[in-house]
Amino acid sequence: MPISFEPAANTTKAQDFYHRLAEEQMRPISRKYDVHEHEMPWEFVRFMWDRSKSTPPARLDGPDDGFVKVCVQAEELCWGDAGLYLRIPSPALGGSAVGAAGTNEQKLRFMGPFNGEGEPKWGAMAITEPGAGSDAAAITTTATADGDEWVLNGTKIFCTAGDAASTYPGGFVVVWATVDKSAGRGGIKSFVVPAGTPGMKLVGCEKKLGIRASDTATLILENCRVPKENLLGSAEVKKADPTKTGDKGFKGAMATFDASRPIVAAMAVGVGRAALDFVKEELTRQGVTVRYDAPRHELTAIERDVIDMEAELQAARLLTWRSAKMLNHGKRNNLEASMAKAKAGLAVTKITQKAVELLGPLGYSQKTLVEKWMRDAKINDIYEGTQQINQLIVARRILDYSSSLLR
Predict the structure, then answer these.
(1) Residues 94 and 228 in one domain
(2) Domain that residue 45 falls in
(3) Are 171 and 164 in contact (CB under 8 A)?
(4) Whole-angstrom distance between the N-terminal and C-terminal Cα of the chain?
(5) Which comes out higher in pLDDT, residue 197 or 252?
(6) What is the pLDDT of residue 249?
(7) Are 257 and 360 found together in one domain?
(8) Is the per-residue pLDDT at 396 higher than 80?
(9) For 302-345, how does the pLDDT look when each residue is reduced to its tens digit (9 = 90+)?
(10) Cα(66)–Cα(270) distance, rounded to whole angstroms?
């Protein structure tokens, strides 16, 4: 049965609030923390942490529109600043992993402290390695059982919020590791490593093109011990079947992306909308009107560009809401999540580049945030699965091909 993926009335009301927050709390400090990379924006962090005390976490299932609301929130706040959005104290991607593969007890234990009480806390997810990027099954970080503990060894790079999540008490990092290399992807499991755990060491943060207000960390695990109960999912190792996409454990870990990709797509839509809104405001200021009712062959080049930008943005937004609504109703959204992520990554890249082009020197200058939005945009085409990987997933799902048949 078809489902509507339009936001509910309460979500639309919340959208106005998030937009005001983005405009009043994020835009004024956006340039500052782009320039001062790796400086913690404590005034914003504490404001958001204090606010979370009175805001119950959105349900990501059931009839209350929770996941669509999360995506609407991401769009509005990234309209304000994508880097600052990634600095908001929350379980973030680590929480998506716990939510996708954890038990109720694990969800309560690791997600419970994120209620606005005490000091701010962060969650993170550590997947990428120097030799394992898009192919998550190539992970070489090991997890070895030793009595009542798992011992982790390896190096993780490009870990969003990895600095804050590994440093500040109450935070955690979800580390992907193999318990049996001979089992291939069937041996890949995920483990929750609390902040401050001996053996987990922060060795530095990347200097980046965009989203510079956020931290992107490198973590080294050297004989890092965590309790057996910090494993997400089953410890059972099942040899990989080349005709299938992986065993339940690996699928459980990969299910994280079914939840996180719509959020990243929504973030991309927010950045693209920021650039498009600015372009339209500037055109209005200069007396240029976009004629939506005129035949395309009568439009100026600028009018055609603006209409095309709007069409790209709306297509990405609707794909995002569709994938979010499916997850909200407990439907598998693997195909739709990758569609939304792939479309939004392309759309935001095109829109922000075109915005710089249309505005000329004003777009290229640091007098406005347009050039920053273009820099912030590109990461949405890379993390949570590159454009190419998501297109590959879409092709596999549509054609019903396994990973061994379509690479």
Answers:
(1) no
(2) 9-111
(3) yes
(4) 32
(5) 197
(6) 54
(7) yes
(8) yes
(9) 999 999 999 999 999 999 999 999 988 889 999 999 999 999 99
(10) 18
Dist. CA 227–CA 201, nearest whole Å: 18
Out of 75, 76, 371, 384, the active site residue is 384
CB-based contacts of 244, cutoff 8 Å, min separation 6 = 402
Q: Is-catalytic flag, 117?
A: no
CA neighbor of 132 nearest in space, from 184, 183, 93:
184
Q: Are residues 284 and 216 in the same domain?
A: no
Name which of 175, 290, 260, 262 is nearest 222 in CA terms: 175
The predicted-structure confidence for 54-106, as pLDDT tens digits, reads as follows: 765 554 444 457 889 999 999 999 999 999 999 999 999 999 889 888 999 99
Looking at residue 351, which CATH number applies to its domain?
Answer: 1.20.140.10
Distance, CA of 202 to CA of 88 (rounded, Å): 20
Nearest of 153, 190, 154 to residue 175 by alpha carbon: 190
CA separation for the pair 325, 63 (Å, rounded): 10
Q: What is the pLDDT of residue 11?
A: 85
User: What pTM was estimated for this model as a whole?
Assistant: 0.92
- Token pair 């994508």 is found at 82
Look at strands 123-126 and 172-178 and give their pairing.
parallel
